[in-house]
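Schema walk-through. Below, the input block comes first and the output block second. Nothing else is stored per chain. Lengths vary across the set, and this one has 145 residues.
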Amino acid sequence: MTKIDLFNETAFLIVKKDITEIIRIITKELNIKKYHFACSFVSQETILAINKKHLNHDYYTDIITFNYGNENGKLEAEFYISPEEANTNSKKFKVELKSELIRLVIHGVLHCIGFNDKTKKEQKEMRMKENELINIIPNDLKVIA
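--- output ---
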């Protein structure tokens, strides 16, 4: 059983069906058969409040992932993504906002299957896997209108 819940609390026009399709493509590629993901696009202030409350971090971030485990073979997780931070990063790294948002969705899924990014080595491994998965996403997906 698979379920994807998407929420957008921002002024950014997120194309929900494209985000859903990205998650389906990635989970299939990673052989994740049963899952329930909740993906919320939130403001900088909301993600800062979540970061402070749950992680004791007093700074903005682009994504926060909560992995609730793999009970009865079903992966349960939620992602909070800040399109504002993604937009800032897209300019910093000279990539399209669409590409940065795709990377963040992939990043969230990878965290749920055990990838971490605390050390330089982990960051490199995660980035390599992100790049591999980005390459299988069809170019015709808009992600953001």
